[in-house]
């Protein structure tokens, strides 16, 4: 694990070199941005994404978002504005001397990816928004309850299933619950249709057909000019991450960028 200073915040990251004989001939790396309460290892390494992409001949950069994984923990809601988190990703590219990348984000990571594509389009060759679809614009709407669950003294006091599931996942990943609550309560994550017009890079939207966190794929695809969409059958927010169809869709999308 390596670290760099992103405007005073220590951010952890890893770089994986392409495997010999990869199929895709490009010097553009893939930047992977994980979801809420996760980290690079859980979201991208364990489900086989890093191996999959390096075997395609790609250099892969994996970031731990601020407040997550091995990166510095912050406790103010303002610290987790999505644009600040996107700036962490952009500064990582600067730190590594990378001009632009194929950026893929899952869930919260997809939102960060969208902000990077909207406000620093020259750094994003392509954008994969996974585990986040129509709710990228509509919003999640349950953040207050999830934050309260993260801050609860005792899990037994959490009555609703979804907030309890977030709490259990955060504990399973060894996350800092107070930092995550601040991240969940941040109001700087909103995206509207007009903002999406700023995205000029090719976009692929991927989500499971049972993913209530992401929402349906088709409405978001319709909002982004030229975007492609893939719906993963019988997949929800948790089990879509390592889905074979998801990986195949990304491989085909990256192959299309060569043409």
Automatic annotation (TrEMBL):
GO terms for molecular function: triacylglycerol lipase activity. GO terms for biological process: glycerolipid catabolic process. InterPro entries: AB_hydrolase, AB_hydrolase_1, AB_hydrolase_fold. Pfam families: Abhydrolase_1. Residues 29-132 form the AB hydrolase-1 domain. Keywords: Hydrolase. This is Hydrolase. The lineage of its organism: unclassified sequences, metagenomes, ecological metagenomes.
């Amino acid at each position: 694990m390596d670290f760099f200073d992103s405007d005073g915040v220590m951010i952890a990251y890893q770089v994986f070199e392409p495997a010999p004989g990869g199929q895709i001939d490009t010097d553009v790396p893939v930047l992977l941005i994980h979801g809420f309460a996760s980290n690079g290892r859980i979201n991208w390494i364990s489900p086989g994404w890093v191996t999959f992409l390096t075997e395609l001949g790609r250099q892969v950069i994996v970031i731990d978002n601020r407040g997550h994984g091995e990166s510095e923990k912050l406790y103010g809601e303002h610290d987790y504005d999505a644009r600040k988190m996107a700036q962490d990703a952009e500064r990582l590219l600067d730190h590594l001397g990378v001009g632009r990348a194929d950026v893929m984000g899952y869930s919260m990571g997809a939102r960060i990816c969208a902000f990077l594509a909207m406000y620093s389009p020259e750094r994003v060759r392509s954008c994969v928004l996974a585990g986040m679809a129509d709710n990228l614009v509509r919003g999640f709407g349950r953040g207050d309850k999830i934050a309260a669950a993260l801050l609860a003294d005792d899990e037994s006091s959490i009555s609703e299933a979804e907030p309890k599931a977030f709490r259990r996942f955060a504990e399973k990943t060894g996350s800092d619950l107070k930092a995550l609550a601040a991240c969940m309560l941040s109001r700087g994550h909103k995206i509207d249709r007009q903002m999406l017009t700023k995205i000029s890079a090719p976009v692929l939207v991927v989500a499971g057909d049972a993913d209530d966190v992401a929402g349906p794929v088709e409405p978001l695809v319709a909002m982004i000019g030229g975007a492609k969409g893939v719906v993963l059958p019988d997949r929800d927010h948790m089990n879509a991450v390592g889905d074979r169809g998801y990986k195949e869709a990304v491989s085909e999308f990256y192959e299309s960028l060569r043409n």
